[in-house]
Amino acid sequence: MMNEKQRATSRFLIKQRLFIKLYLLKYIEDGRLYGIQMLEQIRDRFQSEGYKPNHADIYRALHELVDSGVIKASKRKLTEDSYQEILIYYIRDTQKAAIIKEQGIKELKDSAALLKKALDDLED
Amino acid sequence: MMNEKQRATSRFLIKQRLFIKLYLLKYIEDGRLYGIQMLEQIRDRFQSEGYKPNHADIYRALHELVDSGVIKASKRKLTEDSYQEILIYYIRDTQKAAIIKEQGIKELKDSAALLKKALDDLED
DNA sequence: TCATGAACATAGTGTTCATTA
DNA sequence: TAATGAACACTATGTTCATGA
């Protein structure tokens, strides 16, 4: 088991790490993308919001998902005649993936609710 | 001037520090509360969301606002016959306060929009 | 004793460097 | 050379300790 760690007594908004994991799981379920491609997808999606995660964020999230047994990596060649290797990911444990997604969606909703409350309080 | 610091290339959600400053400015404008009271106000407000900032968060935010000339502190006795001293805050620079509020509201809105987008993408 | 504030430790994250084929 | 991964540094934040009247 992973979660011996004590939960923080306070919780503000969803952490970027979890946010990224949610998108990674979605991309991994949908199709065959490697790390940098998933990074580009997220950047494109949030370009207008100015959110531009860096590659270390994506790799750290992928590694945590691999280490916790949620996904697995498979080495491929970028093209047939290419020397460049890439890593394609697959869901390894659907149950664990579902738990992460459920928890993540919950935190997304809680965060949205918290921000809405603040906007009601603070907006002119 | 304060903001020589380079803006981060990436921006995810609003930082807790700024979030707290917005509420502090509101409380300071509205009435005469000291630090711990403002902390309790925020905790009460977000009790149902499970957001429970600690006292260091509030003091750090207050000190930054004082150091940047936005507010000023005034020493008081808790009660007439009390030895306990408290600090009551006042707006010192309305202009600076307005800038912080404006920027904060903007980040609140941006954050809310980002979360909404993610929920649309990720929710079942 | 309680409000304030400082010290300390750690987590999260952005930037830079390294590796591999 | 591009994709991956590691190292490093710094910021944000939570916890604990200290102070003053």
UniProtKB/TrEMBL annotation, chains A, B:
This is Replication termination protein. One of its GO terms (biological process) is DNA replication termination. InterPro entries: RTP (IPR003432), WH-like_DNA-bd_sf (IPR036388), WH_DNA-bd_sf (IPR036390). It comes from the Bacteria. It comes from Alkalicoccobacillus porphyridii. Gene3D superfamilies: Winged helix-like DNA-binding domain superfamily/Winged helix DNA-binding domain. GO terms for molecular function: DNA binding.
